[in-house]
Amino acid sequence: MPDQSLRAREYEGLMIAGEYAEGQLSPAVYELLGSARELNRKLQTDIAVVLIGSGTSAYTASCISHGADTVYVLDQPGLSPLSEEVHTELLHQLVLEVKPEILLLPSTIHSKSIAARLAARLNTGLTADCTELDIDLPSRVLLQIRPAREGALMATICCPEARPQMATVRPGAMPPCVPDPQRTGRIIHPQLQLPSVLRTSILEVIKSREAPGSAASGIIVAAGRGVCSKEGIELVRELAACLGAELGATRPVIDQGWLDYSRQIGLTGRNVSGRIYIAVGISGAVQHTVGIRRMDTVIAINRDRTAPILGLAAHGIVADLFEAVPLLIEQVRQNITVGR
Questions:
Q1: Last residue of one domain, picked from the residues 170, 188, 206
Q2: Contact 89, 54 (CB under 8 A)
Q3: I want to staple 313 with a disulfide (CB 3.0 to 4.6 A). Which of 24, 46, 256, 300 is the partner?
Q4: What pLDDT digit, counting tens, does each position of 44-102 carry?
Q5: Contact (Cβ atoms closer than 8 angstroms) between residue 48 and residue 100
Q6: Are residues 21 and 169 located together in one domain of the fold?
Q7: Residue 2: pLDDT above 90?
Q8: Is the same domain home to 21 and 148?
Q9: Which of 153, 70, 325 has its CA nearest to residue 145?
Q10: Which domain range does residue 333 map to?
Q11: What angle do CA 31, 36, 37 make, to 5 degrees?
Q12: Residues 29 and 137 in one domain
């Protein structure tokens, strides 16, 4: 096997494998571009995005405006719907040709599967579900930061020799950069070979129930273990409805079957962003709070004055939720009536 340190010196540049499905480019690609630009303050290298799928050419300009220096486009009718087997093969060929020192993918079901297959082919390391990234200079080693031990600690993982350094990043963990319509970049149509034999065939694509998006109000009301019952959940749901807010939850609530998994926020759920996050009966364990770091303001309702969430919150109410929440609902409704 060749000396890995020599192999590392052959690789340069930062590459993002974009996820494109059902005619849409995943918003996580723009978040990865924002992260790449931050990393590039130290790396000072080329930032590339790979777009694979029928219709991807429409997204070249937006990728460049968000920070890409180079966009590799494979826009062919036969590349949709998304096939993990085909995408892995094409990315493998491109990585061997371009030799990026860092390869980033969004932490989605499809991209994580592609990343694992690709890392095995490239004989390199892979860190999944990162929430932060940084660069160690002068080694140019990617510091891949993610929660570990069920969120009890934050681990920094690195791949000092094998290349490319690969990581998947949780959607919502990093903000996208502000686009610059004046930016210019290169658009390259690489000549890659489609696999002649496929082990799998996509017969039909069935759309899953969509996860709730951020509410137009920018407010999220979330229920935790302290809500205790279905009755408590309905009370939290009523508060969310009054505020025009999205309803969220922690893992214990989902495990009880009180709300659908699509509502789960945190390490094993979604990352969210918005103006106000109202945490009802949530203790504030790191495996949950890692998912709300991009909320502007946190308001907590908890009867335990030692709950960690109260230390994180800008405003805290130490009270029984069955007493506090009805009063909040009443006050909100009064304000709505007065406003009319």
A1: 188
A2: no
A3: 300
A4: 999 999 999 999 999 999 999 999 999 999 998 877 777 888 899 999 999 999 999 99
A5: yes
A6: yes
A7: no
A8: yes
A9: 153
A10: 219-339
A11: 100
A12: yes
Cβ-contact 48, 14 below 8 angstroms: yes
Residues 229 and 150 occupy one common structural domain: no
The pTM is what? 0.76
Do 234 and 179 lie in one domain? The reply is no
Give the residue from 188, 206, 231 where a domain finishes. 188
Annotate 25-49 with DSSP letters as a single string.
Answer: E-THHHHHHHHHHHHHHHH---EEE
Average pLDDT across the chain, whole number:
89
Paired tokens of 308:
């960690």
Helix (H) or strand (E) holding 204: none
Cβ atoms < 10 Å from Cβ of 182 = 6
Residue 215 pLDDT exceeds 70: no
What strands lie across the sheet with 165-169, from one edge to the other? Answer: 126-130, 165-169, 102-106, 14-17, 47-52, 70-74, 186-188
Continuous H helices in 145-293: 230-243, 251-255, 286-289
pLDDT of residue 335: 80
Instruction: Say how far apart CA 185 and CA 90 lie, in whole Å.
Output: 22
